[in-house]
Amino acid sequence: MRKIVLYIAASLDGYIARPDGSIDWLEDDVYKLEGEDYGYNSFRQTIDTTLMGNNTYKVVKEMGMPFPYQDKKNYVFTRSSHPKADFVEFVQEDPVAFVKQLKKQEGKDIWLIGGAQLNMQLLNASLVDEMIITFVPLILGRGIPLFAGGVSERKMKVHDVSTYQNGFVQVNFKL
Ligand SMILES: NC(=O)c1ccc[n+]([C@@H]2O[C@H](COP(=O)([O-])OP(=O)(O)OC[C@H]3O[C@@H](n4cnc5c(N)ncnc54)[C@H](OP(=O)(O)O)[C@@H]3O)[C@@H](O)[C@H]2O)c1
């Protein structure tokens, strides 16, 4: 069965964004490593679908660049109705029920982009098969956590660890 993979970057204290949702700290010049994409392009080839909460979708849209996942099937979860938008399908269904069905369909793996609310709900339902988390050696102190409040305790296995010259540490966790 196709896997759900959370591929995401986090500060070393476990935040994925500042309290206002910004992710500028990921692009800080101090972390620039010429020619290094942290496995992003090869990961992208393994997936054909993305999952996002509406808050994450809004951040992506406001980045001021063409929508980055145009070649994928993109689902955005929301509790309200929205006019049709390019490249994404809004889903008002419960993410857990929807993703259970999606996993049964034929296809490549599925990228859980985030954010915290969606990550928490899918992890609690045991629907996240793998997590590839790139830790940035930065303490943000506050912000939006990797998993929203209400996430259940869960032991994960470390499958692989990659370290980079800029201090990034990428850990591949499996259930
Ligand atoms: N560091 C990284 O690599 C990375 C990656 C991804 C995201 N992020 C950050 O994560 C932040 C967003 O995280 P977040 O936790 O605030 O929000 P989120 O999980 O992206 O989206 C939350 C929204 O999803 C919808 N939603 C949640 N549960 C639902 C349900 N059961 N049924 C239907 N819709 C549901 C709701 O949308 P409506 O309000 O429309 O109802 C809710 O407000 C952003 O700032 C983004 O930058 C960072």
What would you say this structure looks like, in words?
The chain has 175 residues and is α/β, with parallel strands linked by helices. 19% of the residues lie in helices and 31% in strands. The protein has four helices and ten strands. The chain has helices spanning 40-45, 54-61, 95-104, 116-124, and strands spanning 4-11, 15-17, 47-53, 73-77, 88-91, 109-114, 130-136, 144-145, 157-163, 169-174. The strands form two sheets. An eight-stranded mixed beta sheet has the order 5-4-3-6-1-7-10-9. Strands 2-8 form a two-stranded antiparallel ribbon. A hairpin with a 5-residue loop joins strand 9 and strand 10. The radius of gyration is 16 Å and the shape is globular. The structure holds NADP nicotinamide-adenine-dinucleotide phosphate (NAP).
> How far apart, in Å, are the first and last alpha carbons?
15 Å
Strand order of the largest sheet: 5-4-3-6-1-7-10-9
Which ligands accompany this protein?
A: NADP nicotinamide-adenine-dinucleotide phosphate
- Per DSSP E runs of 2 or more residues, the count of β-strands stands at 10
Provide the CATH architecture.
3-Layer(aba) Sandwich
- How many helical elements? 4
Radius of gyration: 16 Å
CATH homologous superfamily name?
A: Dihydrofolate Reductase, subunit A
Number of structural domains: 1
- H/E element string? EEHEHEEHEHEEEE
Which stretches of 5+ consecutive residues score pLDDT under 50? none
Report the mean per-residue pLDDT as an integer: 97
How much of the sequence lies in strands comes to: 25-35%
Shape: globular
CATH first level: Alpha Beta
